Predict the structure.
Amino acid sequence: MTAASISQAAFAEVVGLSPDKLSKSLSGVRRFTSYDLARIADFGGTTVDWLLTGREPLRPDVAARTSASSVDERGRSQLKDLVERFTTAHEVIDLLGLSPRLPELPGVRADLKRYVDQGAALAEDALAALAAAGSPTVSDLGTADLVHALERAFGIDVAKLGLPDGIDGAAWQADGFRLIMIARTKVPTRQRFTLAHEFGHILARDAQDLLTETHLSPGRQKDLTEVRANVFAAHFLMPRSEIASWTGEKGITDEQLTSMVVHFQVSPSALAARLTQLGLITSETADRLRGLTTQDCHWLTGQSDLFEARKTWSLARRLPFRPAQLLYEAYLAGDTTLRPLAAYTGQDVDRMRELLEPEPAPPEDVPSGSDMDEGDLVFQP
């Protein structure tokens, strides 16, 4: 009230309280409800947590790392704005006592010292956890279904957004939530590999600060945590046990290679790197495979329609559903306003109110006449 330079009566009106109720709440006779606090926080441009505790909201800085060096200040600001939406939503959910309990995550095995071995073992543990949760094999999951599986089994919110130029993905984990953001793109295999790469960072606990990734090049990273995340992604998306079913006495044919690109939903370059690492193809075959595109492989296997469907999904915008659902349920229960939900979804609050609270349509006049009076059906083509 002091900062806004308005009277207590005017403040009460703005936040939807009677002057008497506000006076009693300020003097400790009456408790503020969660709805009261939400309205006050909205008006004051702060958070309920700050009103209750004086703590400043937790906000990450973009980690200073090589993979983010090509992102300019405008891009960093845009990324922070996106993260703000998620952190604010989770703060409201937590203060309302609605935060779901996050499942335990596999972690890096303490007995493994080499980062390559850690990434491979972490992928095995993640695949085992998915199987225990009843999920099909990863190669049998489209990226949309894989996203749902990660959210269910590991409590990771996955968003697909228009990220700043130069960023393919980002990951951040805090006490209350785990977040992966992947960029919308025309290259579905890059998006899928980025998803798996960021998932590896979450499991390895690398994302205590906000991590951002530029275009990932499997097998070419120098940072050891990046190497581990790349190894994890390769083993997670292309498990050795599944690749073995494609190999015969004469090795892997060119026709099988293109089919594997489609089956595992990875780029020819990623598949070439994985098969070379396993010693299943020669360097000449790997170079020949790298000369193809993902679209080429779909075309050569007669599945161009499947490629277009995958590309359409990879271009679409997606917000994690669980935070939106919890905020909407809290609004219906009268525990908060529409503003947190509108901020989370990027919608104008008045427009959202129109959608969720439409004015009832006026009753239509029923025309008189013998046909209508008798209840005859009227067919209008």
